[in-house]
Specification:
single chain; two-stranded antiparallel sheet; about 30% strand
């Protein structure tokens, strides 16, 4: 495999899925940000380059990236105690007031 192919595959693995919830919709309207679930080992520069690479056809430019590590909740079923997986979220601010069109790309499958 060429180095270019490895880089593009890594870019596609960084962004897991957009977060669709009432809170993320409120953040998108108020602060012009988009919320994504990202891989746990991704840095802010990795996330920025991945967003710009995936949506380069829409000329999306990232202004800033904020990340948060969310600890999984402890859950109990009867006498058994388990734990949900930890995950990482990224809050993306876009330049020029643009919006990401999620319908134009078939990246996330059925998530």
């Amino acid at each position: 495999m060429s180095e270019n192919t490895l880089i593009s595959e890594r870019m596609l693995e960084i962004i897991k899925a957009p977060q669709v919830s009432e809170k993320s919709t409120f953040i998108a309207e108020k602060n012009k940000q988009v919320v994504f679930f990202v891989s746990r080992d991704a840095t802010k520069t990795d996330i920025k380059s991945a967003i710009e690479y995936i949506w380069k056809s829409q000329n999306i430019l990232v202004e800033s990236v904020r990340t948060i590590n969310v600890k999984g909740k402890k859950k109990r079923v009867g006498r058994f105690i388990g734990k949900r997986s930890d995950f990482k979220k990224a809050f993306i601010s876009l330049k020029d007031g643009k919006e990401i069109d999620f319908t134009a790309i078939k990246l996330f499958g059925d998530k």
